[in-house]
Amino acid sequence: NAGVMQNPRHLVRRRGQEARLRCSPMKGHSHVYWYRQLPEEGLKFMVYLQKENIIDESGMPKERFSAEFPKEGPSILRIQQVVRGDSAAYFCASSPRTPARDTQYFGPGTRLTVL
Amino acid sequence: QKEVEQNSGPLSVPEGAIASLNCTYSDRGSQSFFWYRQYSGKSPELIMFIYSNGDKEDGRFTAQLNKASQYVSLLIRDSQPSDSATYLCATPGGAQKLVFGQGTRLTINP
User: Fold this and answer.
1) pLDDT > 90: what percent of chain A?
2) Pairing between strand A19-24 and A75-79?
3) Would the pLDDT of A16 be above 90?
4) Angle (CA) B102 B107 B110, round 5°
5) Distance (Å) from the alpha carbon of B72 to chain A's nearest alpha carbon
6) Chain A partners of B94 at a C-beta cutoff of 8 Å?
7) Residue A104 · residue A37 · CB < 8 Å
8) Which residues pair with B20 in a beta bridge?
9) pLDDT attached to residue A40
């Protein structure tokens, strides 16, 4: 029973490039969440998606960041024109229902380094 | 805006002793709480969740919830060096997301 999968595990980009992070939820899970963890800090919520819908993007920066969860395929977190401050670990989590009723399971994360 | 507070540590405990990790929260309406363990460079791993006032035990781990005082704690009995990690407390912030504390770094000294 595969867990949450994320790729790539490590991503290096130069300032101004685009970063695409992918997340495949656990089988049977239809809720996907993205979190960001800056060095030496806790996890901060970014966005919550269900298939083809963004439900809550209150934690997403207003510019350069976008997320999708298409009908087919993984969820994608896209960061355009990356800057050094985007360097962080980005974790995806999934749950079968909303977290108030169920737990979230985290993927291994993508560690983004912006040079 | 819900807030979850943890002492960032580091907390050092000798091997075999009880490690006590604490978390306070701001929203009196919070109903459920989760403890995650995160090893350095790894992803958070769920170890306990608690919904009801009182204690919940799972092996060497005990979660305690006191809604009147708005705190949650995690006790680790017979601490092992492998328990050295950062422990994150979280609660749902509305139905859509988890609100995390900043984490407590625990070191078990052999």
Assistant:
1) 77
2) antiparallel
3) yes
4) 170
5) 17
6) 56, 100
7) no
8) B75
9) 76
Mutate to test the interface with B, among A26, A43, A50, A98 (most CBs of B within 10 A): A43
CB contact under 8 A, A33 and B98: yes
Three-state SS at B37 = strand
The answer to whether the Cβ–Cβ distance between B95 and A100 falls below 8 Å is yes
pLDDT tens sequence across A23-56: 999 998 889 999 999 987 889 999 999 988 999 9
State the pLDDT at residue A101.
63
Check CB contact of A106 with chain B, cutoff 8 Å: yes
In this structure, the number of other CB atoms found within 10 A of the CB of residue A87 comes to 16
Q: Are B38 and B89 within 8 A, CB to CB? A: no
- pLDDT tens series, chain B, 110 aa: 678 999 878 899 999 999 999 999 998 888 889 999 999 989 999 999 998 889 999 999 999 999 999 999 999 999 999 999 999 999 988 767 889 999 999 999 99
**Are the beta carbons of A28 and B89 closer than 8 angstroms?**
no
**Is A102 an interface residue toward B (CB < 8 Å)?**
no
One-letter amino acid of A41:
E
Classified as helix, coil or strand, A85 is: helix
